[in-house]
Each structure stands twice: as structure tokens, then as C-alpha cells.
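Morning. Coffee machine broken again, so started the prediction first thing and wrote up yesterday's gels while waiting. Chain of 316 residues, entered below exactly as on the submission form.
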Amino acid sequence: MSIHSRLTSLPNIEDLESRLATGEKLRSLLKDRNEGRLVECLDDGFVRLVDHMGDDAAIVQAARVSYGAGTKAVSDDRSLIRYLISHRHTSPLEMVEFKFHVRVPMDCWRQWIRHRTASVNEYSTRYSEAIDSRSTTEIDQWRLQSEDRKQGSGGFAPARLQPPADPAAYYEFTGEYLSKRETELHELANRVYLERLDAGVAREQARKDLPLSTYTEAYWKIDGNNLFHFLGLRMDSHAQLEIRTYANAIAKLIQGIVPFAWEAFEDYQLNALTLSQPEIWEIYNLLHPDKPTGHKPLGKRERKELESKLERLGIS
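Came back before lunch.
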């Protein structure tokens, strides 16, 4: 079957069954979104909370090694959880588990899957045709490479030419041009992929030139302790914007399930500051210039990080 006939022919019974299944899936997703179990991400992605086991009470129960309800007072539960997280006694957090259904671009998923502390089952493009959806970039959202960090971005490419620039100059650096080329690449890659399938090429080989912007789906199950570690890294301002979007969506879904643990995580990990021993020495020298510690001076990167921490504390 040619690509043209693939796109224009009337559906057969199998196509109708597939569409009915797809429609049922969409209805389920819409229901979860309306009930607060699904958060949309990027242009066609989402995070859906499928199931969870345990809550704050399960953490407290495990910490006390009991089979009862946990503690006598809610305030005791909160205090205990805050103590556990602030002192890094985190194994009780593993008593809580979350299972998510995610739809995410493959380039973002590559970062995600580096966290090897979860159970994962991903959509297979070897058994099924690739999901016909790709992450796209608006013309004002093309980020430029950071000048002081090998990983990371800083600032945005201009969306369109700004007068009085010469229309023939620097056109390739505008977001308008980059998005146009992105669309062309997506269309070409999809057409080549469909051509291979129509030619009878095995799906496992036909997929090899699909762009990393192609969406994939997976079920991802993780315990509370490792989820907090994931969120601590991926909600950080230095994390890539796309995966940070998904991390924020996960945070939104779990906050109401473990409110005490979430509050403690925010206070003692996500929004906390830590000081290395060299940083402590440096601060001591600033406060006591007449009693230098004699330690090795901080490097350029370390000093910049310390200055950022001091700025946050209102110390210049």
C-alpha cells in the first residue's frame, strides 16, 4: 500500500477496532485529567498517576516498625516525617510507591531513564508503529547555548528578524527559520519511515532514523525515596526545561497523597542550601579575617557557586 493510499483509503475492520480502542483511551485520559490525575506537558505529552500504594501514614508506620495506625496524633506524624527527611533516614519513604503513565519525547526520556531506581515498561516501536507525534518548538522558544555552562542554555534566539537588519543576513538564526526547518525535518523523517513500512521493511529497522522529538509512552513505577531524589535533580533550575516540566507535573500529582513528606522534602531538600567544608572555611575567613584557616582557595566554579548561595542569604 502506498503512502497516499495509506492516508486516504477507507478504514477496514482492524482500523475501526484500533480507532475504537484509541477513542476509549482518549476518554480515559480526559476523565483522569478532569479528576486531577493527569497533567499535560509540552505540546502533546502528559503524566498520569495510574496508582499508588501508601501515604504519610505508611511512612510513619514503617518508621515505628508497628502494625497499628502509626501514631496517636497527626502532629506526631508530621514531626516524625520531618525528622526522617531532615536526618536522611529515608528507608521508610520506600514504603510508598507511585505508578505513572507518561507520554514524553524520546530526547527527554533519555534523561529520565538514567534514573535506574524505577520499574519501567515502554512502548515498543519494534512491535508497533511509532507514535505519530513529535515535540515541536515555537518560534520564540529556541534557546541558545549557555556561554558559561557546557550543559544548559541561556537566552533565546530572536523569533523574527528585527529591523533594520538585512533580510538576507542572519536569517538562519531566527526562531521562525528554525521552526520551519524543524517541520520540514519531521515531515521528511515521517515520510521515509512510512515508505519503509509500506515496502515491507521490518519495524525494528524502519524506525532507526526517527527523530528524538518523537513521542514515546511508558509506565514508570517508583518508591517515594527515589522519587524525591529524581524530583530534587529534575526540578532544579539547572535541569533542562523539558524534563523540569514533567518533574513539576509529577510533583503536582503526589503532593496531596503525601503532604507531610512533600512539605519536608521542600524544606530540607528541594529549597535547602548545603555548604561544603571548603565553603565553610571560606565563610569563616570572611567573618574572621584575623584568623585565617590557611585552606586552599576555592576554584572559579566553586567560588561562583558560593557567591550564589551567599546572595540567596542576603550576604554580599
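Confidence is low (pLDDT under 50) at residues 1-12. Going to sketch it on the whiteboard this afternoon.
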